[in-house]
């Protein structure tokens, strides 16, 4: 079973690329971030794509802003349900309850400016408390999405590793560490502990992607029992339609 996260950076602009990607990769679960569309604006290319159940938390907060989606292959895990959790802000979260785990899709606020930075920290704290409650109930948890934080020095290219930059501040990194202290595993990094060029997002600079001047901010975190079932991880560097690359884990149930 494979689970992907992908910041699509506008589903309407990326609809043909997404449909082709779904057809070629055939993910069992995929979290899409930065959909930038209300549910009624999702293109028919995607809504009519066969073989998947589709759930949306569209950009009703602000037109063409934020938004997440979750696509589930119909035969993947039997009955599933999806909800927007009470702590959600700016249409950034979807929670899917499946028989073997709870999958939380997230698009963490970027946090530019003092006011939005406070929103980011509050959101991460609320998300952590929500995950803690699920773990306390004995549930297995997958947190997948664009975290908008490069957790360690190795997760950002040295050309952009500027102290005090949003996405690199101690408070943000501590907030992510607090999630991992719940027992979650940053599984892509754990399986690639010394890989310095393992990036998932690249700024809109000339040749930044070609030179791999990136950040690792798209992540999948797993509770311990699920981490023990991982048979592989990947960053899909061949898919270049968005400024983010899809990230996946393979679970052997």
Automatic annotation (TrEMBL):
Co-factor binding comment: Probably binds two magnesium or manganese ions per subunit.
Site (Transition state stabilizer): 148
GO biological process: DNA repair
Gene3D superfamilies in alphabetical order: Endonuclease/exonuclease/phosphatase
Site entry (Interaction with DNA substrate), positions: 244
Record has Magnesium as a keyword: yes
Domain of life: Bacteria
UniProt keyword terms in alphabetical order: Hydrolase, Magnesium, Manganese, Metal-binding
Active site: 107, 146, 244
Binding site for Mg(2+): 7, 34, 146, 148, 243-244
Cofactor or coenzyme needed: Mg(2+); Mn(2+)
Gene Ontology molecular function, alphabetical: double-stranded DNA 3'-5' DNA exonuclease activity; metal ion binding
Span of domain Endonuclease/exonuclease/phosphatase: 5-244
Annotated site (Important for catalytic activity): 218
Pfam families: Exo_endo_phos
Homology family: Belongs to the DNA repair enzymes AP/ExoA family.
Protein name, UniProt field: Exodeoxyribonuclease III
Originating species: Chlorobaculum parvum (strain DSM 263 / NCIMB 8327) (Chlorobium vibrioforme subsp. thiosulfatophilum)
Lineage: Bacteria, Pseudomonadati, Chlorobiota, Chlorobiia, Chlorobiales
């Amino acid at each position: 079973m494979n689970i992907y996260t992908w910041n699509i950076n506008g589903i309407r602009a990326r609809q043909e690329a997404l449909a082709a990607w779904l057809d070629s990769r055939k993910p069992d679960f995929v979290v899409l971030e930065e959909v930038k569309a209300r549910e009624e604006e999702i293109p028919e290319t995607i809504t009519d794509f066969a073989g998947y159940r589709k759930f949306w938390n569209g950009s009703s907060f602000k037109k063409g802003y934020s938004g997440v989606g979750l696509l589930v292959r119909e035969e993947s895990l039997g009955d599933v349900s999806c909800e927007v959790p009470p702590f959600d802000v700016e249409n950034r979260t979807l929670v899917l309850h499946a028989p073997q785990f709870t999958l939380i899709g997230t698009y963490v606020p970027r946090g530019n400016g003092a006011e939005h930075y406070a929103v980011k920290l509050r959101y991460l704290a609320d998300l952590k408390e929500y995950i803690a409650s699920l773990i306390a109930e004995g549930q297995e948890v997958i947190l997948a999405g664009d975290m908008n934080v490069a957790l360690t020095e190795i997760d950002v290219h040295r050309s952009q590793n500027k102290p005090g930059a949003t996405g690199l501040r101690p408070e943000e990194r501590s907030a992510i560490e607090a999630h991992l202290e719940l027992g979650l595993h940053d599984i892509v990094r754990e399986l690639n502990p010394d890989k310095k060029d393992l990036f998932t997002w690249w700024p809109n600079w000339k040749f930044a992607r070609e030179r791999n001047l990136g950040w690792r901010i798209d992540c999948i975190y797993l509770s311990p029992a699920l981490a023990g079932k991982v048979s592989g991880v990947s960053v899909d560097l061949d898919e270049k339609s968005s400024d983010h690359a899809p990230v996946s884990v393979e679970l052997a149930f």
